Structure prediction request, 818 residues.
Amino acid sequence: MTQDTLLRVRGLKIGATIYPPGERPRDIEIVHGVDFDLAPGKVLGLIGESGAGKSTIGLAAMAYGRGGVELTGGEVHVNGRDILQSGLRDVRRLRGAEVTYVSQSAAASFNPAKKIMEQVIEAAVFQNKFSKKDAEARAIELFRKLGLPDPETIGNRYPHQVSGGQLQRCMTALALCPEPDLVVFDEPTTALDVTTQIDVLAAIKEAIRDTGVAALYITHDLAVVAQVSDHIMVLRMGEMVEYGTVDQIINDPQEEYTQALVSVRSINHEEKLPTDNPLLRVEGVTARYKGTNFDVLKNINVELHPGQTLAVVGESGSGKSTLARVITGLLPPSAGTITFDGRTLTPDLPTRPLDDLRELQMIYQMADTAMNPRQTVGTLIGRPLEFYFGLKGKEKQTRIQELLDEIELGEGFQDRYPAELSGGQKQRVCIARALAAKPKLIICDEVTSALDPLVADGILKLLLKLQKIEDVSFLFITHDLATVKAIADSIAVMYQGEVVRYGPKSQVLSPPFDDYTDLLLSSVPEMKLGWLEEVLESRKMESAGN
Amino acid sequence: MLKNMPISAMIGLSFTALYFLMALFAPLIAPYGMAEVVGDVWEPSSSEFLLGTDNIGRDLLTRLIYGGRTTIFIATMATILSFVTGAVLGFFAAVSGGWIDQVLSRFVDLIMSIPSLIFALVVLSVMPTTMFILIVLMGLLDSTRVYRLARAVAVDITVMDYVEAARLRGEKTAWIIFREILPNALSPLVAEMGLRFIFMVLFISTLSFLGLGVQPPQADWGGIVKENKEGINYGIQAALYPAYAIATLCISINLVADWILNRTTSLKGGRG
Prediction:
């Protein structure tokens, strides 16, 4: 084998044993023979939806199967050795020395009881790559390269003392410290806010370039992977769909599936004009959580008109979900009033009349936890019918089926449990449950964030269709500006508990921008080469993660 | 479900079933009457008296069968009582939160800080020792443990979005407790039920051994040990048979409870 292939994967097959309830355990194959090569210093992006097997393949480069996953066939050569045939002792020498790993959630991967420096140099010292002193010097050098503040002293802090974006960069330093040949990045920016993601992305890209390390970059976001990779491999259900250079995949995708991924979020939504009578009017609302001494919401004023969508945009901690809690009555505001359909809503939930509760429904981010796992779809959707309208028996059944048809699920779903549904189907059932109450307003709290892009697209289209049919208004809470562009009529941008920009969509999204909106808008990854560099050049404001 | 049952659970289940059936059909199985004196004091085992006779010449096997009936009946009733009270109060505390939770939980802490055997002895020394009092006393004392578990499980469930969704819908507390929380809290509670049942058996046996439980001539396992304990000095096994019975029942129920616990807490799809 020549030195120009660092990682050579041939016919890789990965299997796992599943334990379906009430049945015998059985073996399934989750990756069906994947081939690829990676040259030293190059970056390969692995992209696909959840369940595509991309993380599993990434870990296979370390000869590791997580959670009962087994590498059942094929070859994985690292630096010319087939690591699937090597003994445990050899594999141990490989992991943390030649191949290292950066996980999605740095917060969950760092040991909270140890200082960052101790953990960053652990692998390098353990593998006898460096002495403790040299490793520390190298770590500090890496901290500096990755743009971390106070590189000399940040290692003495504990993981909870730095921000999420910083911790993710510390983890990158950890992976680069032993001078590996290959780093596996497993969705390193997925859990971060957009404005933080861009910094981490830039830091990773620069570090890869400067150290000349090769990388496998795993993500579900094509726009992100386009910024850091040389080649992209598109995976679907354990099989390779397409492999090519970034340029080719983005600008000239051959396969239908890749084309769908590239053109996702192409919904065009005509903005509707405000009416005279807003359905929901939030006036001067200020709120704080019990036992804290600062306001999470500061003097919020927004309006939502019938049959329209108000998008509330902001990063985590900006107070957008708190606004939803105040409107629903879960958190009584300390000042301000909320008018709904001409009536003033009482501040706390128990005192609201049933009709107010019925007309104001909510859909959650995690459909998994929003549905009782012990209730069937029929019960979940049927309960509001029975509770608000007293429907029973045949009448209820018919209405449930109507709702199921409306959310495009059809027959045969009434007796299923949530565990038997896919992520997109679950979210659809949640939508049907909200619709069952015949609401005037539905609050959608990050309803598409937990879904794969193509599935999320389907949900957004469904919501827009339902809005036309049922004439319902949406208060759409999200951090994703692409979603906002697709469905909003008006937009409120939130930052640290305040609405910094508010108005019709066309107005909010056109210049001149205030500094924060500019930062937010420019941070949304675009599917084109060189976008990252352009943005970093033209920014006016440092992101919150620094 | 029964197909994949491990051998240990199978053994446990068959012994448990055996004991419960014996308790249920005691009058049909027992060779003699419960308090009937049929032979000499501490006769050795023979074809007539399979396990011999006891300290006043009653058939020991008959005493054991009737004793099992009393012991298992009291333990079962007390377990049911402790679960109903403990679980309902625990769920209620978790759902209500705030001062209701505080008052209930601190009260339970207070009761738990007194060793339950001593508490029971004090109460039984002033109250008449009837079966009803025994069941209520044991059930309520033990419900503090169930309360703790139920509250802990329910606190985790009440923060789920589906409970919040039910609240936003305007559901009453009773619906939230029985329709949203109970079905999801059932598996840990059922597994705990097995273990609590064993503690009940041990508790009633202890009380009877101390003379404050089931009163003669009623038979129960703890009581039989007490009546025959002098015999051990003379090498007579009579006191040991009820002890064996208590031990085997406890172990077999433990095996079953273990199996249920394994099935329901496994992440591999056990929560079917």
